[in-house]
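Running this now, will post back.
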Amino acid sequence: MSSTEPPTTEVPPQRKSWRSRLRSRGVVITAVVAALVVIGGVTTALLLPDRDHDRFGPGFDRAGWSGAPPWAEGRHGGMDMDERGPGGERFGGPGGRGFDLDDEPVVTGTVASVANGSIVVNVDGAGQRTIRTDGETRVRGSGNSGLGDLQVGERVVVAVEGTGDAATAEAIWAPQAGVTGTVTAVSGDTATVTSVEGLQVTVNTTALSQKPAVGDVVVLTGTADAGTIRADGIRVLPKAS
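Update: finished.
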């Protein structure tokens, strides 16, 4: 007599609900998106150049002039120039902010005379030189906007195109002289200032209504005159107590 075993019924595994499946897939998708964002950020940082490097250029010195010189606006266009001078600082001083000549041919000195079609410059360390001017010659700095504004004895930097007698002034820049430092001596209308760079600067204060006193920390601006600054502006800085 054989015995018949009752049939067994295999219970199939319970399937996850559609909500659970969607939740699991959402977690996976979120993880993948996050990974792609991280990878994209790293790739961008590696491929794109440093922003400061692009802005200031290789070897940029924050205390110096970067890029085109202050007189760079000429017949070929260029940056705008103003009275602040190199480095964008209105108040500079001897030995202060420098600027890159950028291989621009220049003549430096003082104005001997200005005539229609030419300017004569007393070149530093040399004699006089006559340089042609034309309708495209630009004049900037120290309140000057045209050739007629230049004064005899005023210091200028002339950017030149061409050589010899054919040399033509592309741009003429009249830098504003200035010094920032401590007044160490006063004698009448003459003040001695020790600049923040440590140089001794003589300043003629005749044109100033407010006279500096010994011990004042000042910013003086004006024009250069044979090694002296003829001041036409003064600002006394507050001293720390």
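The first helix runs from residue 18 to 47. More later if anyone needs it.
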